[in-house]
Automatic annotation (TrEMBL), chain A:
One of its GO terms (molecular function) is ATP binding. Its EC number is 2.3.2.34. Belongs to the ubiquitin-conjugating enzyme family. Keywords: ATP-binding, Nucleotide-binding, Transferase, Ubl conjugation pathway. This is NEDD8-conjugating enzyme UBC12. Residues 28-172 form the UBC core domain. Residues 1-26, 163-182 are annotated as: Disordered. The active site is at residue 110. Residues 7-20 have a biased composition (Polar residues). It comes from Saxophila tyrrhenica.
From TrEMBL, chain B:
This is NEDD8-activating enzyme E1 catalytic subunit. SUPFAM superfamilies: Activating enzymes of the ubiquitin-like proteins (SSF69572). Coiled coil: none annotated. Belongs to the ubiquitin-activating E1 family. UBA3 subfamily. Residues 352-435 form the E2 binding domain. Signal peptide: none annotated. Its EC number is 6.2.1.64. InterPro entries: E2-binding, ThiF/MoeB/HesA, ThiF_NAD_FAD-bd, Ub_act_enz_dom_a_sf, Uba3_N, Ubiquitin-activating_enz.
Length: 182, 435
C-alpha cells in the first residue's frame, strides 16, 4: 500500500483540496440533475416549478402546447428523480386526468425513453422534448388509454372533438376529465 | 530443491500455526512478482492487523466472510440490513431454517466466528448510509458484495471523498463483486487514482423493461401481468398505501390482481413466487458464480494486504475482471479507464478560500473571472441547499435573492459547493475555506 501511496503523491495535482471534511457532499444524482437543469431549453411553452427550491430532484413541468390538437391546454407533469439517477429514469406522471391515447387516467405516461429505452446518456431535456412531442403527435400505436387510441385511429375528427370537450372539463363516453384550458 | 529444506519452521509442523501451514509457505519467501523489499515477516502481520469491511451478507457476503476468515483475517466488520428469507437458504450457506427472520449480518458473523476461533466479526444491522466517515476510516480495505447499484455508488463516492493527501491511510481500496446468473465481475478501485464505480456505470445494463402500453393493452407473458398489477393497478386502487415488497399481504394482492389479469388474457404461469421475483427485481443467483466472484475478490484483497503478488487495480493496469459462464467459459481482464468528466472522481474538489463576509453574488462574479472556468451561467449548490441557479427561470427567481446574502450565513467552513455551467461538460467542485 505504501507503493500505491507514493504513486498517488506523484499523480496528485498540487491544488487539490487538502484535508477532508465531515460535511455531506453533493451527490452524483444531484450533480447530474443540476447539470441537466442548466442545459434545459424550455422555450415559451414550458415552465418548471420547484415546491422546495433546495430539492432539485422533485419538481413539476407545465406544458402549454401552442399548436396541435392540445393547443391552449395547460398540462402539469410531476418529476420524481431518485438518487439512482441517471442509472434509473425519472418518474414522470401527468397530474391532470386527461384524454390522451398515450396517457392513462391515472397519469401514467407511455414514452419509450421513460422506460424501456432509457439510457444514462439521455438527459432531462430529452424527456421534456418527448413529452412535448406526445401532445403534437399523439399516437395510436402505443395506447395507454385504449378508447382514445381507437378514436384516434378510426375517426380523427371525432378524436379532435373528444380532445376539445375533455380539455374543457367535459366527459367522453361517461368518463369525466379535468378542465385544463388556459 | 524442497522448500522445506529452506524454511523448515514454516512447514507448520512443530510450530504454533499449523492452521496456516500452507499460507505461511506461500508468504515465507519472495517470488518473481513480489516487491524488491519483500519481507516475509510482514505479510502474516499485515493479515492479522488488517481490518476488513464486508458490505452485504447475502450470497456473495457469505462466501466473502468465509474466505477471509479461512485466510487468517481476524478483524472483520459486516454491514447488512436484511433479514434471512427462506428462499436464501439454498445458497447463503451460513444460514439455517431456524435463522429465517433473523439478521443476515448477525447470523453470518456468529456462524463464522464459531467455525473459525480467533476471528472477530462485528455485525452491523443498518444501511451503509447510517455510518459516517470516521467509521469507514478505520478499515484497510472495503469489499462489496451487493446487488444494489445505488449502494455501490454511495460507498464509492464516500471513499473517493475521504482521500486526504495529508494522510496515506485515507486511501481505502474498494473491491467490488457482482453476479447475475452465470455472469459476474470483480473489480478493484483505488479511489481518486483509478476508474471508479461511477466511471464504470455504463457497465451495468439498465433493468430490462417492457413498454408501458404493452403492459396496459396486450400483455403476452405472466411477468407482464405482474408488472401491470405493480405499476398501474396498485396506484389506481391502493393509492394511499405505500407498497412494501416485504409485506406478504401486499405481494398477495399483486399476485391475485395479476392472476385475474392473466386469466382474462389466457396467459398461464403467474405464481406467488414469480410475483415476488418480478416486484423485488430478484436477479437469479447461482451459488457457484457467487463462489467464483467472491474468491477472486478475496484473493485480490489478500494480495493487496500482503503484497505477495501483483493485484487487480494497480494504477494504469487491469482493474476489471469479467467472468462469463453463460456461453462456455470466458474471462476477460482489462483496464477500465478513469473518466475526466466523472461526477465523482473526475474533477476532485479544490480548496476555495473565501471571505465569509463577502456575498454569494461576489462569488458568482469571481467564477466568471476564474481562468479555468469563466462560468457565465452557473448553477451551484451544496448537498443541502440550492445556492443560485441561472436556469431554469423559476429556480433563478427563487434563488436570486441569495446573491445578496453573505457566504458566512449560507455555508459552513469545509462544505462542498458544486458548480455546473452549460458551457462545460465537467462540473466544478470546491471546498469552501473561510479566510
Ligand atoms: Zn469516477
Amino acid at each position: 500500500m505504501l507503493k500505491i501511496w507514493s504513486m498517488k503523491q506523484q499523480q496528485q495535482k498540487s491544488d487539490a483540496a487538502s484535508g477532508q471534511s465531515k460535511k455531506k457532499k453533493v451527490t452524483a444524482a444531484q450533480l447530474r440533475v443540476q447539470k441537466d437543469l442548466s442545459e434545459l431549453s424550455l422555450g415559451t411553452t414550458m415552465t418548471t416549478h420547484f415546491p422546495n427550491p433546495d430539492d432539485i430532484l422533485n419538481f413539476t413541468l407545465t406544458l402549454t402546447p401552442d399548436e396541435g390538437l392540445y393547443k391552449s391546454g395547460i398540462f402539469t407533469f410531476t418529476f420524481a428523480i431518485s438518487q439512482n439517477f441517471p442509472h434509473e429514469p425519472p418518474k414522470v406522471k401527468c397530474k391532470e386526468k386527461i384524454y390522451h391515447p398515450n396517457i392513462d387516467l391515472e397519469g401514467n405516461v407511455c414514452l419509450n425513453i421513460l422506460r424501456e429505452d432509457w439510457k444514462p446518456v439521455l438527459n432531462l431535456n430529452a424527456v421534456i422534448v418527448g413529452l412535448q412531442f406526445l401532445f403534437l403527435e399523439p399516437n395510436a400505436q402505443d395506447p395507454l388509454n385504449k378508447d382514445a387510441a381507437n378514436d384516434l385511429q378510426q375517426d380523427r375528427d371525432r378524436f379532435r372533438r373528444n380532445v376539445r370537450s375533455a380539455m374543457g372539463g367535459g366527459s367522453v363516453r361517461g368518463e369525466s376529465f379535468d378542465r385544463v384550458m388556459k | 530443491m524442497q522448500p522445506e529444506a529452506l524454511a523448515p519452521a514454516m512447514n507448520g509442523e512443530g510450530t504454533d500455526r499449523p492452521r496456516w501451514k500452507y499460507m505461511d509457505r506461500i508468504l515465507s519467501r519472495p517470488g518473481g512478482y513480489t516487491d524488491e523489499d519483500y519481507d516475509p515477516d510482514t505479510p502474516a502481520n499485515n493479515i492479522e492487523a488488517a481490518k476488513i469491511l464486508v458490505i452485504g451478507a447475502g450470497g456473495l457476503g457469505c462466501e466473502i466472510l468465509k474466505n477471509f476468515a479461512l485466510s487468517g483475517f481476524k478483524n472483520i466488520d459486516v454491514i447488512d440490513m436484511d433479514t434471512i428469507d427462506v428462499s436464501n437458504l439454498n445458497r447463503q450457506f451460513l444460514f439455517r431454517q431456524k435463522d429465517v427472520g433473523k439478521s443476515k449480518a448477525s447470523v453470518a458473523a456468529e456462524f463464522v466466528m464459531k467455525r473459525v476461533p480467533g476471528c472477530k466479526i462485528n455485525a452491523h444491522i443498518c444501511k451503509i448510509q447510517d455510518m459516517d466517515e470516521d467509521y469507514y476510516m478505520q478499515f484497510t480495505i472495503v469489499v462489496c458484495g451487493l446487488d444494489s447499484i445505488e449502494a455501490r455508488r454511495w460507498m464509492n463516492a464516500t471513499l473517493v471523498g475521504m482521500v486526504d493527501m495529508e494522510n496515506p491511510d485515507s486511501l481505502k481500496p474498494l473491491i467490488d463483486g457482482g453476479t447475475e446468473g452465470f455472469k459476474g465481475q470483480s473489480r478493484v478501485i483505488f479511489p481518486t487514482m483509478t476508474s471508479c464505480i461511477e466511471c464504470q456505470l455504463d457497465m451495468h445494463a439498465p433493468r430490462a423493461a417492457v413498454p408501458l402500453c404493452t403492459l396496459a393493452t396486450i400483455p403476452r407473458q405472466p411477468q407482464h401481468c405482474i408488472e401491470w398489477a405493480h405499476i398501474i393497478k396498485w396506484d389506481e386502487e391502493r393509492k394511499d398505501i405505500q407498497l412494501d415488497t416485504d409485506d406478504p399481504e401486499h405481494i398477495t394482492w399483486l399476485y391475485q390482481t395479476a392472476l385475474a389479469r392473466a386469466q382474462e388474457f389466457g396467459i398461464a404461469g403467474v405464481t406467488y413466487s414469480m410475483t415476488q421475483g418480478v416486484v423485488k427485481n430478484i436477479i437469479p443467483a447461482i451459488a457457484s458464480t457467487n463462489a467464483i466472484i467472491a474468491a477472486s475478490c478475496c484473493n485480490e484483497a489478500f494480495k493487496i494486504v500482503t503484497s505477495s503478488a501483483p493485484f487487480l487495480g494497480n494504477p494504469e493496469q487491469n482493474n476489471y475482471m469479467l467472468y462469463t459462464g453463460d456461453s462456455g467459459v470466458y474471462t476477460y481482464t482489462f483496464e477500465h479507464q478513469k473518466k475526466d468528466d466523472c461526477p465523482v472522481c473526475g474533477n476532485l474538489p479544490k480548496d476555495l478560500p473565501v471571505n465569509p463576509q463577502s456575498t454569494l453574488g461576489e462569488l458568482v462574479e469571481s467564477f466568471a473571472e476564474r481562468p479555468e472556468s469563466q462560468l457565465k451561467k452557473p448553477n451551484m449548490r451544496t448537498e443541502e441547499k440550492t445556492l443560485f441557479y441561472s436556469a431554469p427561470e423559476s429556480l433563478r427567481q427563487q434563488t436570486e435573492g441569495n446573491l445578496k446574502r453573505k457566504l458566512g450565513e449560507m455555508l459552513v467552513d469545509g462544505e462542498e459547493v458544486a458548480v455546473s455551467d452549460p458551457a462545460f461538460t465537467i462540473d466544478f467542485r470546491y471546498k469552501i475555506r473561510f479566510s
